[in-house]
Amino acid sequence: MGDLAPSESGEDTVVVRVLVTDQFPGKTINLRSGAGIQCQEVYGEWAVDKTAVEGIPLALQMTILPPSINLGQTVSLQMHWNRSLKEGLVLIQPESQQLLLPSMIGQRDTVLNYLPHEKGLHTVTFSGEDLAGGKANAEGEFKVEVKSYFRVDRNRIRVSGTGIATITYSLSKPGPVTVIILNVAGEVVRELLKGDVGLGEHTLQWDGRAADGQPVSSGLYLICFEKNGKTETKKLLVIR
Fold first, then answer.
1. DSSP assignments along 114-183, one per residue
2. CA 82/CA 86 separation, integer angstroms
3. In Å, what is the CA distance from 181 to each residue of 113, 146, 158, 165, 213?
4. What is the DSSP letter of 26?
5. Cis omega before residue 66 (within 30°)?
6. Does the N-terminal peptide bond of residue 6 adopt cis geometry, omega within 30 degrees of 0?
7. Confidence (pLDDT) at 21
8. Neighbours of 190 (CB within 10 A)
9. What digits encode the pLDDT tens for the residues 98-118?
10. pLDDT in the model for residue 89
11. Helix segments in the chain, DSSP class H
12. Mean pLDDT of the region 184-213
């Protein structure tokens, strides 16, 4: 296969040039340090993980944010490592979800957003293997709760623009839900939702338009949220 001649070095990788006429994609190069490194071919050169040459062991880190969420929300899995990964795997229990990370040459971190489907304590295991065959694991956990609430993201919207009110609600138990818009006279302007809804967090939007699709007049409106025979109300000012 020939000798290896060192070329330019980067922050994360050292590039060596194979002094042969043929290409060997995916082959293992035995460096003078004796470490067998699985290399990636880049325009006839080989980008080799410098830390693998230096013999630094693979280390994985994982941060889970937020550590506690409501069912229907997503959790962010922020993963870091110190060497190029040949492959990585994220296992989430008790949902038995497996997320595969492809080969990442030169990359040192990634973020995955995950939407849980079950309540309770979840454990996350991040395992990886580097280009030299080194393996490591990192573990973490997050809690999924089920809370009841009803809120609106703003107290006024401008219909003539792109004003949209986002209504967020959560159920601790599945059941029938009704969400309607009333004017100050108590008349129904628009029915946004009427039907059975599952537990966890859900969202609706109102664009300041009536049931016929026409913009409502400027003024104060009430967003009424009804479940289990109880009604909660939020005020919203509409400006044209």
1. E---S-EEEEEEEEEEETTS-EEEEEEEEEEE---EEEES-SEEETTTT--EEEEEEESS-EEEEEEEEE
2. 12
3. 33, 26, 16, 12, 13
4. T
5. yes
6. no
7. 36
8. 18
9. 999 888 877 889 999 999 999
10. 95
11. 50-53
12. 92
